[in-house]
Amino acid sequence: MSLTTKTLGRGRRVAAGSLIAVAALTLTACQDGTGAASRPSSAAAPATSQEAGSGAEPSGSTTGGTQQSAGGERPSANAANSASAGSKAKGNVPGTTESRASVMTASDRCTAANMSLRLGASDIGAGNIRYPLVFTNKGKKACTLRGFPGVSLIQRDGSPVGKPATREGGPGGAVRLQPGQSAHAVLHTVNEGVSDTPCWSRSQLVFVYPPGSKESMTTGSRGLRVCGGRFDVTAVQAGSLG
């Protein structure tokens, strides 16, 4: 074989090898351009299915007012502060329970120490008997009564007669008493014979806790006798009714 022929054959083989190399580089460049055959770096990669299903987020992130961590959810500091502020504001809204309770404070309440107590004359009609239980402010400053007194009948030796009075009617409003002014509650029973339930023994004293007080008072009962098992007391009202 001549030298020219050998040279031509070697040139063809080199050219063919070059074409194969160029084709391989072109294929690689095309694949990188579409991203189909390459994987992003770990810094830019999305969470795997296992990480997405765990419910965990980076520490300190907030979602919908809560702060999430590996241990679960807890209110974020901003959400907790907002809830606390809302609760406090609600307690100061006029007409709420807290607002109504502040109408009469412990220092403003009429107590057994600054009042006198008496049982007024009976009012009999239509088979019912009612007695006004009268509280009078004997102190040097105004005070307030509100609600039901606790009332029982006793003998002078302290032994009870029957059961304590049950409440009748609504709680009523606050009654402001200036020095010397009175308020009353009404004790109610029925006449003998109205019911088959036997009457109690006649009492000697009325034993009373003024509304909101832990100190008791007593006054003569005028021989009050409960019949028919009815012994009720209303909330305090303004005035004395005699």
Describe the secondary-structure layout:
Elements: H1 3-34, H2 49-53, E1 62-63, E2 66-69, E3 72-75, H3 77-91, H4 97-101, E4 115-119, E5 123-125, E6 128-137, E7 143-145, E8 150-154, E9 160-161, E10 166-167, E11 175-177, E12 182-190, E13 205-209, E14 217-220, E15 232-233, E16 237-238
Parallel strand pairs: 10-15
Antiparallel strand pairs: 1-2, 2-3, 4-6, 5-6, 6-12, 7-11, 8-9, 8-13, 12-15, 12-16, 13-14
Could you walk me through the main structural features you see in this protein, from its secondary elements to its overall organization?
With 242 residues, the protein is of the alpha+beta class. It is 24% helix and 27% strand. The chain contains 4 helices and 16 strands. The protein has helices at 3-34, 49-53, 77-91, 97-101; strands at 62-63, 66-69, 72-75, 115-119, 123-125, 128-137, 143-145, 150-154, 160-161, 166-167, 175-177, 182-190, 205-209, 217-220, 232-233, 237-238. Strand 8 and strand 9 (160-161) form a beta hairpin. The N and C termini lie far apart (152 Å). The model is unreliable at 1-8 and 19-103 (pLDDT under 50).
What low-confidence regions span 5 or more consecutive residues with pLDDT below 50?
1-8, 19-103
Strand content: 25-35%
- What is the number of strand segments? 16
Q: Give the terminus-to-terminus CA distance.
A: 152 Å
Order of helices and strands, N to C? Answer: HHEEEHHEEEEEEEEEEEEE
Mean pLDDT across the residues is: 72
Q: What structural class results from the helix and strand content? A: alpha+beta
Helix content: 10-25%
Shape: globular
> From the alpha-carbon coordinates, what is the Rg to the nearest angstrom?
46 Å
Give the helix tally. 4
Main beta sheet strand tally, sense and closure: 7 strands, mixed
